[in-house]
Give the backbone structure.
Amino acid sequence: MKDLSQIKKIPLTDADAFVDIVANAYPGFRIISPEEKKKTRRSFIKLLRNPTIDHYGLYRHGELLGGMRTYDFAMNLFSMKTLVGGVGLVAVDLLHKKEKVCKELISFFIDLYRKKNAPIVALYPFRPDFYRKMGFGYGTKVNLYKIKPGDLPRGTSKKHIRFLTGRDRKAFRKCCYQYFLKRHGMFEIKKHEIDYFFKYPEAKTVVYERKDKILGYLSFVFEKTSGDNMLRNNIVIRELVYENRDVLLEILTFLQNQLDQITQIFFPTQDDFFHFLPLDPRDDSENLIPIIGHQTNTQGIGIMYRVIDTRGVFKLLENHNFGNQDCRLRLFIKDSFLKENEGQLIVHFKGGKPSLKRHADFDVEVNIDIADFSSLLMGSVNYHSLFEYGLSDISDERYVDTVAKVFGVEQKPICHTIF
Ligand SMILES: CC(C)(COP(=O)(O)OP(=O)(O)OC[C@H]1O[C@@H](n2cnc3c(N)ncnc32)[C@H](O)[C@@H]1OP(=O)(O)O)[C@@H](O)C(=O)NCCC(=O)NCCS
């Protein structure tokens, strides 16, 4: 089957065919009427002008059977600005599902970013297990809290908070960039993402400004509560960014002040400690999880990462300090989807600094699948858990702690980019 396939950038002449495939593959997008299809076509054409985004289609016998959108992202990988490939909008013609169209598209996507020297790719899965089999590892989970405004801390000031205005573009962009530089896992914001804050009236954005600098922002939409009372609304947070605790406290004070009209604040966050922030972190379910656990939030798997060049990633991170450890490690990576990436590599860590060796001695050998290795390298899982769950074997159990420290992180990766 593979020989028959051709993958190429989708030309404008096939825009309608691609829109039809997407409309059927994602019924939830509700691209049904001719107007809705035209709108999708327009956004496809608009994105053609963006040099960091491409659409590829898989053709057999000249017929478009599926496609995807690829993105060049700059990611903060342990403070190193790194090219990361993203893929989204994977869509296969309903008549040609289970014919390995998706598999070939993902293989092509991985090859494309190997050629661009990107060591890692990422995606948001429609089904986590489907992409885990292809070597993508789970990232940090996303939590959704529903907090009553009155349960948030009310600080002493909100004097630096104001609405974002059209004149703030430069300062706003700078704020986004500073945050990107600060947090492992963040992607640099793209121009069309910045437009969202300025162009869409439903998105309310308040900023924290001090000495002409924007040091944080909160973007949200209002949503009606489920009841009939049009005077009661919820706030749904789209994004919260803050440089330091003063900024956070003022933003929280702003939110706390909405308590007379707002029933709940929907807080999506990848912060595992968020439940310490509100006085009462419970959601409105009143569920008691056995034995006595008050339900606080719902959780889900979002972004997934895949290392596509295991050697390359260690070379790139040659100045990164892997937990201050001294250890000679042989990794055996299993990668059934990308055979070029499978095999062993020896890394000597000295004071945490890694150096790759072709043939050298080692103290300990670790066997691990590329999906879990990707999560381990990014810091979204610790080695103790992978070992305990039987997801990785080690030649000498006395080294479990050392390996856990090598890949240990202070802060798990976070990502605010949806694609
Ligand atoms: C989800 C969707 C993209 C799947 O597309 P598809 O073309 O039917 O999928 P494929 O036939 O390529 O199936 C994947 C294949 O890769 C194979 N595969 C996965 N990991 C593998 C590995 N490590 N080594 C070898 N093969 C592997 C799977 O076994 C499967 O083949 P099989 O069906 O013979 O078992 C398609 O159903 C669709 O368009 N859905 C709606 C839109 C959507 O949800 N998109 C995804 C958004 S992220």
Q: What stands out?
A: The CA atoms of residues 201 and 399 lie 55 Å apart. The domain at 143-300 is CATH 3.40.630.30 (Aminopeptidase). The chain has a mean pLDDT of 96. The two ends are 30 Å apart (CA to CA).
